[in-house]
Amino acid sequence: MNAVKAENLTITYEGKPALEGVDFTLDEGETLLLLGPNGAGKTTLLKTIACFHGEYTGKLEVFGREPCEARDLIGYVPQSHSLNERVPLTALEVVAMGGIYRKGFFHFKIPGATIEKASEVLGFVGLDHVADRLFSELSGGQKQRVLLARALMSDPRLLLLDEPLSALDPSARGEVAGVLNKIKRERGITMIITTHDINPLLEIGDKVMLINRRLIAFGKPGEVLQDSVIKSVYGPLARVIPVEDRLFCITGDVHIHRHGGGGR
Ligand SMILES: Nc1ncnc2c1ncn2[C@@H]1O[C@H](COP(=O)(O)OP(=O)(O)OP(=O)(O)O)[C@@H](O)[C@H]1O
Ligand SMILES: [Mg+2]
């Protein structure tokens, strides 16, 4: 079954297109890595699939339904989390919130079954040991894993993750990528993950989509990640380097001048 299907999808804000003429299908269980420079329309596409934004033309289906009719099947982890860190919630409470908001009302006391499930999910992302620590005091990688756990509380069939690796150091990126890999292997959840650094995720990507206000390329990683395709969006310094049986993708966002020592 198609988890997501878009046909000639154009998404607009007040009539102005942010993303035009996009076609793709994603099967249930597949992971899509969504790549594109700032302003390309990545968040816009995720928000539209999640029914947070409804101004579009063309066809968009989530498990064969209109996005807003598939809302209960979708988990969404936003680009930068909007938790008020001055509210002293523990990691476990933050996860448990994912099982409460979904029901559309506010509990003053979190039900025991929700806490039990939150503990199980926190264990799944490898964070049992921080359950009672304040969310605000966790490391960036741990916070991101707590937010993944929170999104898992509603048993989504489709998880939309907006830059889950941004603002993390390479070792935390690896940790979060490991959890995403586990979600794919053990839960079989369909995922769309936007990222500026595709390398830690290449292992779990079944499909890669490159957008820049329109669809540039969509297909298997080896098909999309070609020098000419990457250069067409990121400029002449971008490249794809094969190393043994892996690909490394340099999109030119960091470089050091070989002569003169300056970096930017
Ligand atoms: N609420 C909004 N109202 C009007 N225009 C918007 C709105 N949100 C986004 N846009 C515009 O839509 C375009 C795509 O933005 P979007 O946030 O989807 O890009 P992105 O690929 O997620 O970028 P980034 O990598 O910076 O997160 C941009 O031109 C942006 O200014
Ligand atoms: Mg974005």
Automatic annotation (TrEMBL):
Membrane-spanning parts: none
GO MF, one annotated term: ATP binding
Keyword Glycoprotein applies: no
UniProt name for this protein: ABC transporter
Family matches, as SMART domains: AAA (SM00382)
SUPFAM superfamilies: P-loop containing nucleoside triphosphate hydrolases (SSF52540)
PANTHER family for the chain: METAL TRANSPORT SYSTEM ATP-BINDING PROTEIN TM_0124-RELATED
